């Protein structure tokens, strides 16, 4: 099975899992929108966006969720090598298992781990190279309840051995 077919099977299975959990508990769904500081080793930082759809799965544990996430760079990290400017752009599709630990009623620590598909392009004015792969990804962060419908979220996510990002944004109940 090639990578594209494998990606389709993984994403279809994740969508069915999320849809099944969402239909069972309609008030346990959330959407997260974040801005990210993209850090690629050896390059200046770039800026990306993160969109996440999550579903609590209390049947597994009262603090457990599954998430599907899309990440994309909008301002590419840059570096100068051999007299040329090089840029790195990437997008990812990921599925995570998330555990949120309530420290107080409003403040929750969270950790997550999952499978990630990444597509990374490194380019200069003279050439470019694109690679894609499946990786294990993980992250740590926290949420702070602002109301019954929204939370502030801050996360650090490791995408690859040399790519990570710190992101901040809002999480909304659906």
Question: What would the CATH topology be?
Answer: Porin
Strand content: over 45%
What is the total number of structural domains? Answer: 1
Low-confidence parts, pLDDT < 50 over ≥5 residues? none
How do the strands of the widest beta sheet line up side by side? 1-2-3-5-6-7-8-9
Compute the separation of the termini in Å.
36 Å
Task: Name the overall outline.
Answer: elongated
What does this protein structure show overall?
With 174 residues, the protein is mainly beta. The chain has one domain: Porin. It is 13% helix and 66% strand. It has 1 helix and 9 strands. An 8-stranded antiparallel β-barrel has the order 1-2-3-5-6-7-8-9. A hairpin with a 4-residue loop joins β7 and β8. The radius of gyration is 17 Å and the shape is elongated. It starts with a helix and ends with a strand. The mean pLDDT is 88.
């Amino acid at each position: 099975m090639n990578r594209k077919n494998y990606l389709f099977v993984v994403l279809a299975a994740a969508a069915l899992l999320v849809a099944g959990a969402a239909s069972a508990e309609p008030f346990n769904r959330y959407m997260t929108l974040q801005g990210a500081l993209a850090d690629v080793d050896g390059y200046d930082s770039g800026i990306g966006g993160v969109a996440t759809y999550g579903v609590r799965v209390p049947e597994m544990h009262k603090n457990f969720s599954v998430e599907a996430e899309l990440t994309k760079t909008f301002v590419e990290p840059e570096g100068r090598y051999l007299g040329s400017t090089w840029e790195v752009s990437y997008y990812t599709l990921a599925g995570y298992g998330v555990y949120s630990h309530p420290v107080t009623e409003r403040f929750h620590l969270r950790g997550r781990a999952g499978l990630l598909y990444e597509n990374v392009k490194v380019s200069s004015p003279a050439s470019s190279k694109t690679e894609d792969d499946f990786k294990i990804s993980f992250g740590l962060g926290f949420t702070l309840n602002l109301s019954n419908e929204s939370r502030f979220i801050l996360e650090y996510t490791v995408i690859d051995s040399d790519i990570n990002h710190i992101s901040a944004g809002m999480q909304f109940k659906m």
